[in-house]
């Protein structure tokens, strides 16, 4: 099972701002909601999202 990443960790990994991660959620980045204010991401899902976005720009 993948270790879950926080919004901050995903932003650091992708070298984008935290608000950009919320934009990515609107574009289809899947997340897991833990409680009312806590989101987590599977590394495999982040990779899938990046590949999808790369294909759209080609």
UniProtKB/TrEMBL annotation:
Pfam families of this UniProt entry?
HTH_17
Q: Which InterPro entries match?
A: DNA-bd_dom_put_sf, HTH_17, SinI_DNA-bd
Any idea which GO molecular function terms this record carries?
DNA binding
The record's section on SUPFAM superfamilies has:
Putative DNA-binding domain
Its protein name is Helix-turn-helix domain-containing protein
The residue ranges of the Helix-turn-helix domain are 4-51
């Amino acid at each position: 099972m993948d270790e879950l990443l926080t919004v901050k960790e995903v932003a650091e990994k992708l070298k984008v701002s935290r608000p950009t991660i919320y934009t990515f959620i609107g574009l289809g980045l899947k997340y897991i909601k833990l409680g009312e204010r806590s989101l987590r991401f599977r590394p495999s899902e982040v990779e899938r999202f990046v590949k999808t976005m790369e294909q759209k720009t080609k």
